[in-house]
Write a structure and sequence with these properties.
alpha/beta, Hypothetical Protein Ychn, Chain: A, 5-stranded parallel beta sheet, 5 helices, DsrE family protein, sulfurtransferase activity, Sulphur_relay_TusD/DsrE
């Protein structure tokens, strides 16, 4: 990789439809790839975990940000992880957590995964030679 190209880790803390964080982050990710950079991973934290819910059904004239992100992640083979503590607090569960807490359904969209903050930090440290920049997309005040 040439010296002027970077690998980015994106952290999204703002929810779709109540902040522009997911929209801005996706625009950045697409532009970064067009410029020859790499997106190493996406981490959802706080209200950002709402982006990984399979349940939103926006009106047909609005963008479905979960679907837009899912398509992007799958097309470019970018892993995306939702913080488990943030996810559980906000009612976002995968099948494993559904069984663990005996909940009636799971609602984690493909290809998102749920993991602990520690696991994410550890994976970031292991790939620090790869990720040259961590960019945060906050939900605002």
């Amino acid at each position: 990789m040439p010296a002027d190209n970077h690998t980015f880790t994106l952290v999204i803390t703002g929810a779709p439809y109540s902040s522009q964080a997911p929209e801005t982050a996706l625009g950045f990710a697409q532009a970064a790839l067009r410029a020859g950079h790499t997106i190493d991973r996406v981490f959802l934290y706080g209200d950002g975990v709402h982006l990984a819910s399979s349940l939103p059904s926006p009106p047909s004239d609005e963008i479905n940000w979960t679907r837009a992100w899912s398509d992007f992640l799958q097309e470019h083979s970018v892993p995306a992880v939702a913080c488990i503590a943030s996810a559980l607090r906000r009612g976002l569960v995968n099948e494993s957590e559904q069984r663990r807490y005996q909940l009636p359904a799971s609602n984690l969209a493909t290809p998102f995964e749920i993991a602990g903050l520690g696991e994410w930090v550890e994976s970031t440290i292991k790939s620090s030679a790869q990720s040259s920049r961590v960019i945060y997309f906050h939900g605002g005040a």
